[in-house]
Here is the input.
Amino acid sequence: MTDKIHSGTRFGTFFIKAFNSPVVSVVLLAVLAGTGPANAHDKATGVVKQRMDAMGMLAGSMKAIAGQVKSPSPDPDAISVAAQALRDHAGDAMLEGFPEGSLQDPTEARPKIWKEWERFSELAERLALQGQGLILAAANPPSGAAPESSTPHDLESYATLPVDELFLLTAKTCSACHQDYRVKK
Ligand code: HEC
Here is the structure.
């Protein structure tokens, strides 16, 4: 518990320094809550450990992209590489990490994942689409603005967005899934 608070604070400080936009900081704090070197994760085994590791990689990719989009001239190649990792750990690859009923301690997954599998899958697939979208939008200049919540979730729309707005939409997908399907411990 103590470790979690410490790691949260550490990332929090990093992001508050890195971004001018309060909306970006808040979204990222939510996404990265619970990440850090020492948490429940260390005791995990099997598929639970695998999916936690994969989620940790997602957090790493999000941090890498955040580091770029806060800059006035982001490096499209760096964004693209991190976005590929996002895409490849989302979608079906992510869903394979959640075989029915896999709730072994110390998981933070909630049982309703399997009652609401369709919505859970939609969020995992949306993340894959956003990973692909970020590759297409990697060279689009950042706007410094928040994305329209009415942005359609398709590749064509993603490809035309300022890269920081698509990044924020992507972070919302992480948060939406965590809010409903991950226990806050
Ligand atoms: C489709 C749902 C879903 C999406 C989308 C999703 N996550 Fe998760 N995430 C989960 C669940 C469920 C857990 C808890 C897994 C467990 O403890 O077994 C989790 C756990 C985590 C953890 C904690 C891992 C650990 O070591 O305990 C991190 C970090 C994380 N997610 C980051 C992210 C990031 C960053 C994104 C977006 C790029 C993301 N997740 C997208 C469902 C999702």
User: Anything to note?
Assistant: Residues 1-19 have pLDDT under 50 and may be disordered. Residues 31, 34-35, 39-41, 48, 51-52, 55-56, 58-59, 62, 86, 107-109, 120, 123-124, 127, 173-174, 177-178, 181-182 surround heme C (CB under 6 Å). The longest helix spans residues 46-69. Residues 133 and 155 are 6 Å apart (CA to CA).
